[in-house]
Amino acid sequence: MIYDTVIKNSKVVAANGVVNSDIGIKNGRITAIDSKLDGDNIIDGTGLVALPGGIDSHVHISQPSGPGIEMADDFETGTRSAACGGNTTILPFCLPEEGQTLREAVVAYREKAEGNCMTDVSFHLIVKDTDPITIGQDLPALIKAGYTSFKVFMTYANLALSDRQILDVMAVAKEHNAMVMVHAENEDAIEFLRDKAELIGDTGPFHHASTRPIAVEREATHRAISLAEIAEVPLTIVHVSNGETIEEIQRARQRGLKVFAETCPQYITLTAEDLDRAGFEGAKYVCSPPPRAAQEWPKIWNGIQNKVFDIFSSDHCPFRFNDAAGKDAPGARQSFRNIPNGIPGVETRLPVLFSEGVVKKRITLEHFAAITATNHARLYGLYPRKGLIAVGADADIALWDPSLTKPIKQSELHHGSDYTPWEGFEVTGWPVQTILRGVTVMKDGLPIGEPIGQHLERGVMNVE
Ligand code: DUC
Ligand code: ZN
Ligand code: ZN
Q1: Distance between CA atoms of 53 and 34, rounded to whole angstroms?
Q2: Is the shortest distance between the CB of 389 and ligand 1 below 6 Å?
Q3: Is the CB of 437 under 6 A from ligand 1?
Q4: What pLDDT digit, counting tens, does each position of 329-368 carry?
Q5: Is 221 in the pocket of ligand 1 (CB under 6 A)?
Q6: Any alpha helices (H) in 154-296, and if so which ranges?
């Protein structure tokens, strides 16, 4: 057979092991993993590693962020940045604007994404209201339409649900076989600490971290797990930042509960001290949960190595730094309370993990593929179409140069933000070509071609 495209002679991180092979692509799908394949278009993969295109299942794009505040990425820049970072699918969150229903929000997000994406996309929902229409009609209808996961918050006054509300949402998940994702931080405890800090003038960016200590996350995680146990549903604890929270997850699993977990690059490479940088620079690192002390890093690595963590995502939540609609919002220099919450990272997630994990021999290539692509597809209903290199799967492939060494630089990134928290961070191993359903969308660090990304309707969880 003559394939549309053949990737010759790369080290292929395939679903059934690492092999030196060719990959044959026809009609956007992988149709052969074998030697001596022939194609119309030949890509020389000599010296390169072929990995499944990254799936970043925790991304915020064009999300309503409060009056006068604007997220730095729309679907064009967000997916361009994702593609340049070796990703082929991203899952942003769909949050209703004030007064909008969940269904209306989904329609609006689909419109914003349509025709603008350089990766495939699918949306998680954010459930912030539990009125009868949302819970009884919108949510079930949306799950049936392929929006099979949703996030609930235990923090932020305008988003946080009570325990009873969380249980009501979990009941819908149980009935319709959907996945609940939880942002686990105790809002009352944070508010208590925040009021105390402000009273004594502790108002700089660092106090975003000091008012969200580990206990706040550990307690909420324990509670979320207990609620899921009571409601009899699996759940995913997103953006886990520390060892004590890992222990809660391990204990729950030992009791036989289905608890999945996610961590992110900020929890193995940044610290709370970054929020204490001179002037207002610390605002560049304000995200929740906050980066912790460096002594938490090895605990997170242990959690990755011992498979406590199923997925490694960016939690890309970009704001511009020099911008009154971003980090420099009105009142932000007076109190950390007003600093928009989140950091950019969709383009740097994979290089940071490849360098710190694979190159430094903390994890294997197979493990890297699992936590950056395969497990995301399994958890969120995209498997086996996405997240693996196997015959029959979409030809979503990132070719990596495992020995290319260079520092991360804002000037070389493609997101809409004006900074990266990883400026100057030395990385070995970079994606040099991203292929989406057989079409090259990034080459040598630059985006290529038209935005061919599609919306993906998802099925339900597929976890062994
Ligand atoms: N939670 C996220 O998941 N992302 C950004 C901000 C937040 O609180
Ligand atoms: Zn969150
Ligand atoms: Zn997030």
Answers
A1: 19
A2: no
A3: no
A4: 999 999 999 999 999 999 999 999 999 999 999 999 999 9
A5: no
A6: 163-176, 187-199, 206-210, 214-231, 243-254, 266-269
